Amino acid sequence: MKIVIKVGTSTLAHPTGCLNIRGVEELCKVLSDLKNAGHEVILVSSGAIGMGVGKLSLKERPTDMPTKQAAAAVGQCELMYTYDRLFSEYNHTVAQLLITAADVNHGERHENFRNTLNRLLELGVLPIINENDTIATEEIVIGDNDTLAAMVAVSAEADLLVLLSDIDGLYSADPHKDPEAKLIPMVTELDDSIMALAGDKGSALGTGGMRTKLIAAGIATEAGCDMVITNGSHPTGLYDLIDGKPLGTRFAARKG
Predict the structure, then answer these.
(1) Within 13 A of 222's CA, how many CA atoms are on the CB side?
(2) Where are the alpha helices (DSSP H) in the chain?
(3) Which residues lie below 8 Å from residue 218, measured CB to CB, with a gap of 6+?
(4) How far, in Å, CA of 20 to CA of 220, rounded?
(5) How far apart are the C-alpha atoms of 151 and 42, rounded to whole Å?
(6) Per residue in 75-89, pLDDT tens?
(7) Across residues 159-180, what is the average pLDDT?
(8) N or C terminus: fewer CB in 10 A for the chain?
(9) Average pLDDT score over the chain
(10) Least reliable range by pLDDT among 43-47, 64-68, 207-211
(11) Region for residue 110 given its phi and psi (left: phi exceeds 0; alpha: psi -120 to 50; beta: otherwise)
């Protein structure tokens, strides 16, 4: 099975912006085990700006573009150093791919990206993909890694896209505000009633929210790829997903 897993800033880092060591170590261990079992794994990782904020001891996530890009440049080094060290413990080689919207929207560049991605997988490498926040401007920005992950899943012709978030899945209402909110285990059609359930922006360090996840679900399922939203605080749940057990909210791929 070819799996694209997107991990958000809220899973990778504490609210301080500093690395969530236990969480990241467990995630890398589970992904390594999935590779050992014969699955092809692609990781789409947020966290560069968030970790840069922590590394630079900034009080909050920057709002101006130059500081965002500076934080991303610092944080991306920290992020890849961490992944390289942890995956190496399980004898897996990682590769970094930093892309912009032009790399998936422009025909020739998209083909180059796909060829590189597929060759890395053939070589047994675990590709780690992020948006190139150090150079992305308004004209070439994808904007959020949920959408990026869906584009990667389509490019890789993945079987499954998993968005690891700070929430268990899609709910009938905002579970932070409504105690009666119920988890929706399966979505077979992304109609207006489902899209209306999208909340606002997520954590202070991240850029995503439920709306971007539902947009990602539309991109992935339209291309024939199932998508699951689940809580990233328990990476071992990925074993259940691979075994076909229900977890979080699954968005069924469109057939035909």
Answers:
(1) 10
(2) 9-12, 21-36, 48-55, 65-88, 101-105, 107-122, 145-156, 192-195, 210-222, 237-242
(3) 190
(4) 29
(5) 12
(6) 899 899 999 999 999
(7) 88
(8) C
(9) 87
(10) 207-211
(11) alpha
Strands 186-187 and 126-131: what pairing? unpaired
Q: Which two tokens stand for residue 15?
A: 């609210």
140: amino acid identity, one letter: I
What backbone torsions phi and psi does residue 44 show, to the nearest 5 degrees? -105, 115
Contacts of 25 (CB under 8 A, 6+ apart): 86
- Judge contact between 86 and 21, C-beta under 8 A: no
Beta-carbon count within 10 A of 239 CB? 14
Contact 84, 94 (CB under 8 A): yes
Cα–Cα distance for residue pair 124/118, rounded to 1 Å: 10
- The pairs formed by 195-201 with CB atoms below 8 angstroms and a separation of 24 or more are 197/170, 197/171, 197/172, 197/173, 199/174
Residue 199 to residue 212: CA distance in whole angstroms: 10
Q: Sign of torsion, CA 114 237 166 21?
A: negative
Angle at 150 between CA 230 and CA 251, to 5 degrees: 50
Phi, psi of 218 (to 5 degrees): -65, -45
Q: Residue 228 is encoded by which pair of tokens?
A: 């699951």
Judged by average pLDDT, the poorest of 36-40, 175-179, 184-188, 241-245 is 175-179
CB 214 within 8 A of CB 144: no
Q: Tokens 């700006």, residue?
A: 49
